[in-house]
């Protein structure tokens, strides 16, 4: 009697935390699984999109699952408002309305939920954008981590602005509105009890005023991007890829606060990969760089604005980002693969 060994079943691919990190795994998930289900999409993946047939209205949707709910400098409530407002701002739009959907875990203390909602409401009032609709669901214990928030924002594009990750041009100045790494290291330190939270607070804040200050540049403002998941490295790689240019930045010009640099050194993290929630990258025509910096620096949230590099012709390497180091060498700044710091936003 001859018996046959069963054919081994291949291991099914599974979702990893890294698929939500904003790096290469996220790009693969979008390109291979999510976008094909909707009929496919060709073109740059932006933070927000114009609504077809509705003139200058722009829409964005975002989900917030940050752990812990409260961290130095912010919480999931204010973060939900700021993140949504900033996604609209990166397409040159002023926020005009928000919706908020809550998924609440059974057993969450009502006082804790009230604190989150008070912070969310306060942040919306400070921006001047009303919460006009929403939804609430409660799930069983263990089906969510306390509370998840999904927001949708509607904005109206500022006259003359049409920034896009695909509009960078060789010669553009690469500007950064402030220091990097604060949000990711603040959240990680609080979650893991690492002790850095005494020196580091999240930079979560709205950026729409900075974008409005840049609006007089008109068509000379080519790209806006907030380096959230995946950090500055991911944002620059996306711009270089979508615009088919090379981007070169100078290590000495990228503002990394000393506590962030120390924390990243201890933890083995690259500050360029750490999430931010209160700074943005802008690529502008070279003759507009100084005007743009002056406009950014006129607001507290842009007081640390600097020029960190330039967009260059691809020369056979479209999509490449390179850093000139302090010792005169060059290193390629890769798109992060997966998640260094899970549950950051």
Automatic annotation (TrEMBL):
GO terms for biological process: protein maturation. Residues 169-312 form the PurM-like C-terminal domain. Residues 54-155 form the PurM-like N-terminal domain. It comes from the Bacteria. Signal peptide: none annotated. PANTHER family: CARBAMOYL DEHYDRATASE HYPE, HYDROGENASE ISOENZYMES FORMATION PROTEIN HYPE. Belongs to the HypE family. This is Hydrogenase expression/formation protein HypE. It comes from Streptosporangium nondiastaticum. The gene is hypE.
